[in-house]
């Protein structure tokens, strides 16, 4: 009997994306995710900004508790970013493919090669 394959550490992100995509379609009552999705980019974006601020604040906290708080806030930020992805109909695999495409390319070179109509401000 063979043992089950070792789970990949990013499997939870794939499962979360599947759940978010399903919730985006079904919008179950009483779901926090449904509430966010119903609010659209304004509501979800507000939460992303809030969670990004909290993650940045947690980055300055010292010790193991500070590290744990940072990881917790990073989880919140990633969750809310993925909710916005689900709202937009973008799968985490698409983002992974974009990151793979950029792999080995200097960030400055990649940015210089972007189309002029890119809306990025940084």
TrEMBL record:
Predominantly, its location class is: cytoplasm
Q: What GO terms fall under cellular component here?
A: cytoplasm
One biological process GO term for this chain?
L-histidine biosynthetic process
| Subcellular localization, as worded in the UniProt entry | Cytoplasm
Q: What is its EC number?
A: 3.6.1.31
A single GO molecular function term of this UniProt record: ATP binding
Alphabetical list of NCBIfam families matching this protein? histidine_hisI
Q: Which PANTHER family match?
A: HISTIDINE BIOSYNTHESIS BIFUNCTIONAL PROTEIN (PTHR42945), HISTIDINE BIOSYNTHESIS BIFUNCTIONAL PROTEIN HIS7 (PTHR42945:SF1)
Q: What is this protein called?
A: Phosphoribosyl-ATP pyrophosphatase
């Amino acid at each position: 009997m063979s043992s089950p394959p070792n789970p990949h550490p990013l499997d939870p992100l794939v499962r979360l994306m599947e759940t978010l995509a399903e919730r985006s379609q079904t919008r179950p009552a009483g779901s926090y995710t449904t509430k966010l999705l119903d609010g659209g980019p304004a509501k979800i974006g507000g939460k992303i900004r809030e969670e990004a601020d909290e993650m940045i604040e947690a980055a300055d906290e010292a010790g193991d508790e500070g590290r744990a708080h940072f990881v917790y806030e990073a989880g919140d930020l990633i969750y809310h970013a993925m909710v916005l992805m689900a709202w937009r109909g973008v799968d985490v695999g698409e983002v992974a493919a974009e990151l793979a495409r950029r792999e080995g390319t200097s960030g400055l070179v990649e940015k210089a090669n972007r189309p002029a109509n890119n809306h990025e401000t940084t």
